[in-house]
Specification:
The protein is built from 5 helices and 5 strands, in the order αβαβββααβα. Helix 2 (39-54) crosses helix 5. A hairpin with a 6-residue loop joins strand 3 (68-78) and strand 4 (85-95). A 5-stranded mixed sheet has the order 2-1-3-4-5, with helices on one face. The protein has a single domain (27-163), classed as Rossmann fold, CATH 3.40.50. By secondary structure, the protein is α/β, with parallel strands linked by helices. The radius of gyration is 23 Å and the shape is flat.
């Protein structure tokens, strides 16, 4: 009897563990685009931002049908004597129309053009803008990417999560 109970308990725990290990599909799809003339710096900053975004449990980093896009511009700023240098990271967040948005408002005869114009006027395209300054080290650049994603998570995704 004890063996049967133990086997049943083990089966329940194993199935519960398997359910917990299943990946939940991401709720938000985020694209990242970094603009800077230096290819190496572009790849590093893109990697840092993408990595921080992937740490958010409900986010997928993808350029396919994104809900939001982070446009990051990076500048390297140096003093006139080149003794001190810093990075300036400016990030703009663009929101996109949800899938099927136009199908839901567009009639075949386009007779509802005024309604569409009003609805388009109510949509915020640029959601937020963040500007950050990082010191000269790679660790500073990584930290500023972490801070930018934290701001994005709090100011953009946080309200979206609480609405649903």
């Amino acid at each position: 009897m004890k063996t049967t109970v133990m086997i049943m308990l083990l089966a329940v725990l194993t199935s519960a563990s398997a359910i917990a290990d299943e990946e939940v599909p991401p709720r938000f799809r985020i694209a990242v685009e970094v603009t800077v003339p230096d290819d190496d710096l572009r790849e590093r900053v893109t990697g840092y931002l993408s990595s921080e975004l992937q740490n958010l449990r409900d986010v997928a980093v993808t350029s396919e049908h994104p809900d939001y896009k982070l446009f990051a511009m990076v500048m390297q700023v140096a003093t006139s004597d080149d003794r001190r240098m810093a990075y300036v990271l400016s990030v703009s967040v663009a929101g996109f129309f949800p899938d099927g948005y136009f199908d839901s408002i567009l009639r075949d005869d386009l007779a509802n053009a005024n309604e569409i114009k009003q609805r388009l006027g109510e949509v915020t395209v640029y959601r937020n803008q963040f500007m950050s300054l990082a010191g000269p080290t790679e660790a500073n650049l990584q930290q500023v990417a972490k801070n930018v994603v934290a701001k994005f998570n709090y100011h953009v995704l946080g309200p979206e999560r609480s609405e649903h």
